[in-house]
């Protein structure tokens, strides 16, 4: 869709010209039930050195423009309101009255109709530059100002923004709510919500007694029963931790969390009104790993109250500075402040897979990336910025010491509170607490791409180690690593470990202390997961792991192993049948549900993508049979049973065997003791049966009546379109390409239907049409929806490789180019690994 794409150069030019003071923003939401637009009035107070500026605004119209009270003729086009002949170096007031549109894509001010109780809910999401969808502003992170917000909405609604309510004035059926002014705040961090939300509350007092604030968790009324007490308990525990660790009192007044429907992402750190996807409200049975993930997200967003909100990156090239730190803090504070002490295990076994995958794509980038414009920033909310950055920070903390790291963070907050800063500012603060060469560390880790590969080299004589070394390899120059190398005996008991420093430019490092020790059955590099690198194994270690992986007691060590084995499989260095066999062999004994979930998902992915067609169907049958047998042995009602049931449903949906349908029916009939037929499991079963053409539309409709909720209706939409018939693929393809017809949640469900199991051959005829309509897809949908469509409809056939190259030769927009390059690389990897299996 057409809109102005702010460049870094333009942002820097505005920053030099403007001294921003305040925004006064009035939103009139009184006609929310009858109109698709809403009036907005914005008053901006500033001083400028430039007579020519522009405000960012993606509204539908501008009704009036006043500059210091003088009426001006608006010059408004393509997302910008141009301001001409401004008085310079004096106080300036710009007033704009405009009309903005509600969203159905999760951007700007999203409006959702809840059919469960015939109500409307509004919430905002503005990162990185969608504040301009709601009100005219200078939409860039370094131009902070105080916000004075008023909102008019139905008086029976909850009306929420970043700060507590100051006044509430009733006007007939509506209420004007005025909020206390914010501290200096970036535009993308402003937040608005309104609707018949309900809340659970408690109070929190800081450990030193300095603060006493109200904590709230809001949800739709139809989801209120799922707002469990743990949410606010974790919030309070996190505030305890950060209050003491950061040495800067929570600066944003109340702490409100709001769980919203149809959300594009997991959560957003709006200060004082943190937004979460309502999938974190567990209406179905949830595993410990799901609770741990929710805890991590709550604490991730909370750390942003300091990293990102209090001190904000000047531009999106330091996006990692807040997201990598928040990813690190989510895990570190989970371990330190909650019962979820396995957080670093879950990170090593799940999130780092995302980092390694992203870092091997042709579109990989340094952690501190060059971000020329806002569209590029949107693409960099990825596995590098989050997971790799956090992994590298974990190494930095190990490198300088945890106490030193937190001491440097405290200095950073004290120095740059309520302003914008860069990584160099943080590095300066850390240097005050470490004698390590942090400049060299920064160059090595933040300005380079791709993972190093670390391989043990073992020489033995007479059952003893004569030499143990670590060989480091990289596409370019290797980086410095501080890691732990561990030795295990035949019983998989650890009998030795070594803290090893690998030099930045070294290729092989000998561990002198290992000489003379007994020959190990397993050499495990990066125990404790202190560094970021792909880990390899010698042949003996691989044999040991294939037979005995689940006998390793330490779950973090198992996480490192599972991730390393998956990297070997993705790289074509370990046969798919060996990886799948290892998963099947050790699944029932894997006690960590995150590791189990990830391993099972990877096994299914490997069968679908990395096996040649001649071996794929037989392996699907055997894998589904194996999981079925393991599932029957799992403890009733356990996390393992639930994880295995979810994986078994997916495997049975894939299987060509007739018995698969029978087994799905047995599960749907409640014949597996201990497995609750909650909505999530029931819909997974119905969708699997639909993909096998083994359910009637009447049965699917009955499921919709049973679960007449937003989630249930989206699931039904996908299930009713999952039948393996050509006319269904045609219909869903056309529906997906209808701009504005569906919410983001419905788009996801329809994409799942298009890519349903057992219908690969039915999707192949759409390959040529996909490439012929790519321009249309990109231009007619918002970027977040277009991103979903381009990735979700990408043809998984060999001829798509050449077709992608041809399309890229037409010089498409950079954001679209990046998506296609990643899709193409994933296809090429799949074809390459298939040839090796």
Automatic annotation (TrEMBL):
Which cofactors does this gene product need? Answer: Zn(2+)
Organism, per UniProt?
Answer: Corynebacterium flavescens
- In its UniProt entry, what is this protein called? Aminopeptidase N
What Gene Ontology terms describe where this protein resides (cellular component)?
cytoplasm; extracellular space; membrane
Q: Does the keyword Hydrolase apply?
A: yes
E.C. designation(s): 3.4.11.2
Q: What keywords does the record list, in alphabetical order? A: Aminopeptidase, Hydrolase, Metal-binding, Metalloprotease, Protease, Zinc
What family is this protein classified in?
Answer: Belongs to the peptidase M1 family.
Q: Which Gene3D superfamilies match?
A: Neutral Protease Domain 2 (1.10.390.10), tricorn interacting facor f3 domain (2.60.40.1730)
Residue span(s) of domain Peptidase M1 membrane alanine aminopeptidase: 232-445
């Amino acid at each position: 869709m057409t809109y102005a794409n702010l460049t870094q150069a333009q942002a820097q030019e505005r920053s030099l010209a403007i001294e921003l003071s305040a925004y006064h923003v009035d939103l009139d939401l009184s006609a929310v039930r009858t109109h698709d637009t809403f009036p907005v009035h914005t008053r901006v107070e500033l001083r400028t050195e430039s007579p020519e500026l522009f405000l960012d605004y993606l509204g539908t119209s501008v009704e009036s423009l006043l500059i210091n009270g003088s009426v001006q003729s608006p010059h408004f086009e393509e997302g910008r309101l141009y301001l001409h002949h401004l008085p310079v170096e004096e106080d300036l007031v710009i007033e704009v009255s405009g009309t903005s549109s509600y969203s159905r894509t999760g951007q700007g001010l999203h409006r959702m109709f809840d059919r469960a109780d015939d109500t409307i809910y509004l919430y905002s999401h503005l990162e990185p530059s969608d504040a301009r969808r709601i009100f005219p502003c200078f939409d860039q992170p370094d131009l902070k100002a105080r916000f004075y917000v008023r909102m008019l909405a139905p008086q029976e609604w909850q009306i929420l923004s970043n700060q507590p309510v100051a006044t509430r004035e009733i006007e007939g059926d509506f209420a004007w709510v005025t909020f206390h002014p914010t501290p200096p705040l970036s535009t993308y961090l402003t937040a608005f919500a309104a609707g018949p939300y309900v809340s659970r509350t408690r109070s929190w007092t800081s450990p030193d007694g300095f603060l006493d604030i109200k904590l709230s968790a809001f949800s739709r009324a139809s989801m209120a029963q799922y707002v469990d007490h743990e949410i606010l308990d974790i919030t309070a525990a996190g505030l305890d931790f950060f209050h003491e660790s950061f040495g800067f009192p929570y600066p944003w007044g109340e702490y409100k969390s709001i769980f919203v429907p149809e959300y594009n992402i997991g959560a957003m750190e709006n200060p004082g009104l943190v937004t979460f996807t309502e999938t974190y409200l567990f209406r179905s049975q949830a595993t410990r790993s799901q609770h741990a993930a929710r805890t991590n997200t709550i604490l991730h967003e909370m750390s942003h109250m300091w990293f990102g909100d209090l001190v904000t990156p000047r531009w999106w090239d330091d996006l990692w500075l807040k997201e990598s730190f928040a990813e690190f803090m989510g895990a570190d504070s989970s371990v330190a402040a909650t019962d979820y002490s396995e957080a670093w295990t879950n990170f090593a076994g799940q999130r780092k897979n995302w980092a390694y995958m992203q870092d091997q794509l042709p579109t990989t980038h340094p952690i501190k990336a060059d971000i020329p414009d806002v569209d590029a920033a949107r693409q960099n909310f990825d596995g590098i910025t989050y997971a790799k950055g956090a992994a590298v920070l974990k190494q930095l903390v190990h490198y300088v010491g945890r106490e030193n790291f937190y001491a440097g963070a405290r200095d950073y907050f004290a120095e740059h509170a309520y302003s914008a800063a860069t990584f160099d500012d943080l590095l300066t603060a850390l240097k005050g607490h470490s004698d390590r060469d942090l400049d060299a560390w920064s160059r090595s880790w933040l300005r380079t791409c791709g993972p190093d590969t670390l391989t043990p080299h073992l020489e033995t004589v007479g059952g003893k180690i004569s030499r143990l070394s670590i060989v480091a390899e990289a596409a370019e120059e290797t980086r410095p690593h501080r890691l732990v190398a561990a030795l295990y005996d035949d019983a998989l008991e650890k009998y030795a470990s070594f803290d090893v420093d690998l030099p930045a430019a070294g290729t092989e490092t000998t561990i002198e202390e290992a000489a003379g020790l007994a020959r190990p059955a397993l050499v495990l590099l990066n125990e404790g997961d202190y560094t970021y690198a792909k880990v390899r194994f010698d042949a003996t270690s691989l044999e040991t792991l294939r037979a005995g992986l689940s006998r390793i007691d330490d779950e973090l060590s198992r996480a490192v192993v599972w991730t390393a084995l998956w990297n070997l499989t993705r790289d074509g260095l370990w046969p798919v049948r060996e990886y799948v066999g290892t998963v099947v062999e050790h699944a029932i004994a894997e006690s960590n549900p995150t590791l189990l979930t990830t391993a099972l998902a990877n096994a299914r992915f490997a069968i679908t993508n990395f096996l040649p067609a001649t071996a794929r169907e037989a392996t699907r049958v055997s894998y589904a049979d194996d999981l079925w047998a393991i599932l029957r042995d799992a403890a009733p009602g356990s996390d393992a049973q639930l994880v295995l049931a979810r994986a078994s449903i997916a495997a049975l949906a894939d299987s060509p065997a007739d018995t698969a349908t029978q087994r799905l029916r047995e599960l749907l009939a409640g014949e597996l003791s201990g497995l609750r037929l909650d909505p999530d499991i029931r819909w997974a079963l119905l969708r699997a049966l639909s993909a096998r053409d083994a359910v009637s539309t009447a049965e699917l409709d009955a499921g919709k009546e049973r679960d007449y909720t937003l989630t249930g209706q989206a699931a039904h939409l996908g299930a009713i379109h999952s039948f393996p018939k050509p006319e269904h693929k045609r219909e869903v393809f056309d529906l997906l390409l209808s701009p504005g017809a569906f919410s983001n949640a419905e788009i996801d469900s329809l994409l799942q239907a298009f890519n349903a199991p057992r219908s690969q051959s039915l999707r192949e005829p759409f390959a040529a049409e996909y490439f012929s309509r790519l321009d249309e897809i990109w231009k007619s949908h918002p970027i977040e929806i277009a991103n979903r469509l381009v990735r979700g409809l990408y043809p998984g056939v060999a001829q798509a490789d050449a077709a992608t190259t041809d399309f890229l030769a037409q010089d498409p927009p950079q954001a679209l180019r990046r998506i296609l390059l990643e899709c193409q690389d994933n296809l090429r990897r799949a074809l390459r690994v298939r040839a090796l299996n």
